[in-house]
Amino acid sequence: MLTLLIAFLAALAATLLMLRAATGSGRGMDRDLSGPQKFHAVPVPRTGGLGIAWGLACALLALTWQGSAHARDGWLLLLCAAPALAAGLAEDLTRKVGPLPRLLATMVSALLAAWLLGALIRDTAIPGLDWLMGFAAGSVLLSVVAVAGLAHAVNIIDGFNGLASMCAIIMLAALGYVAFQVGDPLVLTLALAGIGAALGFFVWNFPAGLIFLGDGGAYFLGFWFAELSLLLLVRNPGEVSPLCPLLICVYPVFETLFSIYRRRRRGSAPGMPDGIHLHSLIYRRVLRWAIPDHSVRAMTRRNSMTSPYLWFLCMLSVFPAMLFWNHTGVMAAALAGFVLSYLGLYWRIVRFRSPGWLHSARRHLLAARRRRAPAPPP
Fold first, then answer.
1. For residue 44, which phi and psi values (nearest 5 degrees)?
2. Stated pTM of the model
3. What is the block-wise mean pLDDT of the chain (378 residues), using blocks of 10 residues?
4. Is 45 helix (H, G, I), strand (E, B) or coil?
5. Helices then strands (H, E): number in the chain?
6. What does the alpha-carbon distance between residue 285 and residue 282 come to, in Å, rounded to a whole number?
7. Helix, strand or coil for residue 234?
8. Residue 209: what pLDDT?
9. Which end of the chain is less congested by CB atoms within 10 angstroms, N or C?
10. What does DSSP assign to residue 209?
11. List of residues 6+ apart from 339 with CB closer than 8 A
């Protein structure tokens, strides 16, 4: 837990410093307020990933000073993450790095992790793919695609204050729990460090949205979770079901796959942003009418109130993974249940038939906000 605390405090301080620096210089600010996936009201810095990386580096420095056996692998993993983080930050600062170079950078990070740490998929529990895993090239290819895909999936869901960062915290917590159950201190320690660093950023991002995760932060958190998942499976063969990490992160993964399918059906490019992700629909068709005015404060409230709905959706798959982490059949059923639930929810919202519980939850959130609001002067 000391690792988590050090990562949290370091990321908290570093993110504040970057927030002040970006606000003063104007560099790295997200000034596009009109895009289909944009839901903020004022320019906001996008360099939150640097604070998270700094928090993890400080945690690893503490582990090194303590002589921990896990420090070396932690530093190697941080080194492997550098290309993905750098490509994302370059886009955050310049807005001139296309999707393909960023995808290639995350693939390079995954290749480095496969080479330096042996983080490779060796078993999938999926018929047909396990045959491919018998070949070294097949294992490397699937590992690289899976890691890069998850890194970009976390970026896809990074649409509202606290959404992607809290989902990453939830996923890392579940992974750390499974690592504790099987007695894997390396994965547990690095997962706790990731949680602490993400929490240090989260404080400044939710609910006020003072700084954004950015592409760099989203890629970094997605990469960190993906590689820890592979290390958990490699270090504990036969103890943890290969479907466990997939079930934990199925929300961002399926959101990405479904978005690609949607865009292809509509004839648009898969990499182009749009405003009809599930989180965008919840914002527009459930919360937009709850706070009807268009002031900056109201837009920020709507933005932050959207994220808890998706945190709950993320936890729907995380809890079964934590309970049945070594039961492949149960997790396969849970995966199917999540996909059907997601599709059913999306179908109802897109046809203006939002379930009643969404509106009930909205009323509770609004009531809680009113109770916390300061009383008006007499």
1. -135, 140
2. 0.89
3. 93 92 64 50 81 96 93 96 95 88 96 95 82 84 95 92 95 97 96 97 91 93 97 93 95 93 75 73 70 61 84 94 94 95 89 65 57 51
4. strand
5. 15, 2
6. 5
7. helix
8. 85
9. C
10. -
11. 250, 254
> Cα(213)–Cα(52) distance, rounded to whole angstroms?
9
Structure tokens at 245: 């990490």
Task: Give the model's pLDDT for residue 295.
Answer: 60
Q: Let me know: does 60 contact 74? Beta carbons within 8 Å.
A: yes
Question: 362 in helix, strand or coil?
Answer: helix
The confidence score (pLDDT) of residue 371 equals: 59
Q: What is the pLDDT of residue 45?
A: 86
- Give CA separation, 158 vs 98, 231, 278, in Å: 17, 25, 12
Structure token digits, residue 194: 């990731």
User: How many Cβ atoms are within 10 Å of 83's Cβ, its own excluded?
Assistant: 21
Q: Which residue bears the tokens 């070594």?
A: 326
The pLDDT of residue 222 is 96
Parallel, antiparallel or unpaired: strands 44-45 and 29-30: antiparallel
Domain spans in the chain, listed from the N-terminal domain onward: 2-372
Phi, psi dihedral angles at 86 (to 5 degrees) = -65, -45
